[in-house]
Amino acid sequence: MQFEEVSECIYQIPCKNCDKVYVAETGRNLGVPVGEHKKEVEAKDTSIFTRQSKRSAEEQRNKCAITDRATRENHVIDWDQVKVLGHESDRKTRWIKEAIEIRKSKDKCMNRDAGSYFLSTVLTSFFSVS
């Protein structure tokens, strides 16, 4: 089964230029949010990257942190290496698992926030995502 057909999951999208990853959750078929992220990144013209365009990109806040990474750092997102980190049909539990994965990936995570669910730092060490 291809990742596009997977639903109700926690996933990550890596950067080709560094070890940063974007972590998120979805109840939809995974191909839908990945396609939305990809469309937003491709809509930005990052082919010519001058000091002025870098300054302009840094001032602009995009809908997604993936787009910020691509435009601000002139990095390429590795759409072929999307990885499913776990499955969960219950939405609230999926939010918790997403928050755990973001917290676990803190040093290499490009996310701007800690996910859909606020997770105490004390709880992070007690949970693992399957």
Walkthrough of the structure:
The protein is an alpha+beta fold. The protein has a single domain, classed as GIY-YIG endonuclease. 38% of the residues lie in helices and 13% in strands. The protein contains five helices and three strands, in the order ββαααβαα. It has helices spanning 31-43, 51-59, 65-73, 91-104, 121-124; strands at 9-14, 21-26, 83-87. The protein has a three-stranded antiparallel sheet with strand order 2-1-3, covered by helices on one side. Strand 1 (9-14) and strand 2 (21-26) form a beta hairpin. Helix 1 (31-43) runs parallel beside helix 3 (65-73) and helix 2 runs antiparallel to helix 3 (65-73). The longest helix has 14 residues, at 91-104. The protein is globular and about 45 Å long. The two termini are 19 Å apart. The model has no long low-confidence stretch (mean pLDDT 83).
Strand-helix topology:
Layout: E1 9-14, E2 21-26, H1 31-43, H2 51-59, H3 65-73, E3 83-87, H4 91-104, H5 121-124
Antiparallel strand pairs: 1-2, 1-3
Helix pairs in contact: 1-3, 2-3
Q: How many strands in all?
A: 3
Approximate shape: globular
Q: What is the CATH class designation? A: Alpha Beta
Q: What fold name goes in the CATH topology slot?
A: GIY-YIG endonuclease
In the CATH classification, which architecture applies? 3-Layer(aba) Sandwich
Strand content: 5-15%
Roughly how many Å apart are the termini? 19 Å
Task: Summarize the helix and strand pattern as letters.
Answer: EEHHHEHH
